Amino acid sequence: GAVVSQHPSRVICKSGTSVKIECRSLDFQATTMFWYRQFPKQSLMLMATSNEGSKATYEQGVEKDKFLINHASLTLSTLTVTSAHPEDSSFYICSAWTGKGSGNTIYFGEGSWLTVV
Amino acid sequence: DAKTTQPTSMDCAEGRAANLPCNHSTISGNEYVYWYRQIHSQGPQYIIHGLKNNETNEMASLIITEDRKSSTLILPHATLRDTAVYYCIVRGNQAGTALIFGKGTTLSVSS
């Protein structure tokens, strides 16, 4: 299947700092990418939908000024957690849609563990 | 998006077929049934998807009832590495439509 890669896989940052997570589609162009957050023993929660070249659409309750999403190219989307706090510690996962002509499937990255200390 | 109902957990002996059911009684005509699984601390892995016909790939088979109100994911010969949370998700075909995850079924495969 198609490959989606996230970097970094694990990151520890100090409270108050910002951290950026990258999501790349390695072998296909993704006009649409999605960002999720997952807390321990819970299911994935959709944070936002990102379309290349336009502003992301955030789910209700997700602060757009805190979770900055940029989708500047067809193969790269980034999530920046600004002014991180310990409660932002979580597993962040991105996914990308392959498009109707490529099996109409969504593939996920490996996920990024964020720990804010 | 239509919601799905799955059993919370299932057990399966190694080497036997694992049959995971999913109810999606409110599915609409243009919505697909997707199956993903998540092994602990990893991103979800795509398994299979279908619209109304049964589908098979190297990982699994997907059986969709004629009225499309339910489906079954079949892992023909379960192994210990198939232990994971399995998610059945209904999704429309539009580009901006995300996968919305429920709680899924925790499948435990034992020797």
Describe the structure.
The complex is a heterodimer of chains A (117) and B (111). Chain A has 117 residues and is mainly beta. Chain A has strands at residues 4-7, 10-13, 19-25, 32-38, 45-51, 57-58, 67-73, 76-81, 90-97, 106-108, 112-116. Chain A has no helices and eleven strands. Chain A is globular. With 111 residues, chain B is mainly beta. Chain B has strands at residues 9-13, 18-23, 32-38, 45-50, 55-56, 61-64, 70-75, 84-91, 105-110. Chains A and B meet through strand 4, strand 5, strand 9 and strand 10 of A and strand 3 and strand 4 of B.
Short description:
The complex is a heterodimer of chains A (117) and B (111). Chain A is mainly β. Chain A contains no helices and eleven strands.
Share of helix among residues of chain A?
under 10%
Rounded Rg of chain A:
14 Å
Question: Can you give the helix content of chain B as a percent range?
Answer: under 10%
Coarse shape of chain A: globular
- Count of individual helical segments of chain A: 0
Notable characteristics:
heterodimer, A: about 120 residues, mainly beta, seven-stranded mixed sheet, four-stranded antiparallel sheet, about 0% helix, about 50% strand, B: about 110 residues, five-stranded mixed sheet, about 45% strand, globular
Task: Chart the SSEs and their pairings.
The complex is a heterodimer of chains A (117) and B (111).
Chain A: E1 4-7, E2 10-13, E3 19-25, E4 32-38, E5 45-51, E6 57-58, E7 67-73, E8 76-81, E9 90-97, E10 106-108, E11 112-116
Parallel strand pairs in A: 2-11
Antiparallel strand pairs in A: 1-3, 3-8, 4-5, 4-9, 5-6, 7-8, 9-10, 9-11
Chain B: E1 9-13, E2 18-23, E3 32-38, E4 45-50, E5 55-56, E6 61-64, E7 70-75, E8 84-91, E9 105-110
Parallel strand pairs in B: 1-9
Antiparallel strand pairs in B: 2-7, 3-4, 3-8, 5-6, 6-7, 8-9
